[in-house]
Amino acid sequence: IMAKHVSDIHLPSNASIAAGVNGSEASTAKPTEAHVEAINHLFTELELAYHNQFHKAFPDHQSLSMAKQLWLRLLVDFKPVHIAAAGRQAICDNTFLPTPHSIREYCDAAITAGIPDAKTAYIEASLSSEPRQNVKWSHPIVYYAGKTTDWFFISSQPEAQVFPVFERNYLLLLERVKRGEQLSMPVAKALTKKKQAPLEPEVQKEKLKNLREQLDL
């Protein structure tokens, strides 16, 4: 029995989907209709790209439906837009039908695009100077990793001591970014010039007198 066309398959309700699977990658996040749509669309593209492999892996309606439920549970902690981008990139890169694990890796890559690795971020942070809110960082994560680590600690201690602390803080922040948290820079305080009150006439005369004496006028 051949599977129905992927677009004709509908996943169960969110409540039954969220019941979960016992697996290390399963998430406690609740799927939305957008997640369901993203998985349906992903499977449609996989069927078109890997037709024979696809129907060999999912030969009937039941196996296809179960697979889609499993993939949804394993990918629900990513945004639908990242699932879609990951699927397209996986199809471009692979001649064989991708696994949900490989799609997760592509999702991570889509999220972290433009974010430096921990070592590069550490170098960027260690070379920065005050006021750091005004620095043009490659990504806000570098600023927050440096701030959490402590700027004085970064500038005053050797790399061998600082980098492990920085890396730990950086990776914790990176996990937050992967979960969809948006990091934005705090609003930089504008530098204002302090207006100096005019000197009293007597003080002005005294300063002028001293200046003339210094110049022998």
Strand and helix map with partners:
Layout: H1 14-17, H2 33-49, H3 51-57, H4 61-75, H5 80-93, H6 100-111, H7 118-126, H8 140-149, H9 151-156, H10 159-178, H11 201-214
Helix pairs in contact: 2-3, 2-5, 5-6, 7-8, 7-10, 8-10
Short structural summary:
This protein is mainly alpha-helical.
Task: Please give a structural write-up.
The protein is mostly helical and 217 residues long. It has 2 domains: 6-111, no CATH class; 118-178, no CATH class. 59% of the residues lie in helices and 0% in strands. The chain contains 11 helices and no strands. The protein has helices spanning 14-17, 33-49, 51-57, 61-75, 80-93, 100-111, 118-126, 140-149, 151-156, 159-178, 201-214. Helix 2 packs parallel to helix 5, helix 5 (80-93) crosses helix 6 and helix 8 packs across helix 10. The longest helix has 20 residues, at 159-178. It is elongated, with a radius of gyration of 29 Å.
Q: What attributes characterize this protein structure?
A:
mainly alpha; 217 residues; 0% strand; 59% helix; disordered N terminus
What general outline do the C-alpha atoms trace?
A: elongated
How many domains is the backbone divided into? 2
Return residue spans where pLDDT drops below 50 for at least 5 consecutive residues: 1-9, 14-26
N/C terminus separation: 110 Å
Gyration radius, in Å: 29 Å
Tell me the strand percentage band. Answer: under 5%
Q: Could you give the count of β-strands? A: 0
Mean pLDDT: 84
Helical segment count = 11
- Provide the structure class: mainly alpha
How is the biggest beta sheet arranged?
none
Q: Give, in order, the helices and strands.
A: HHHHHHHHHHH
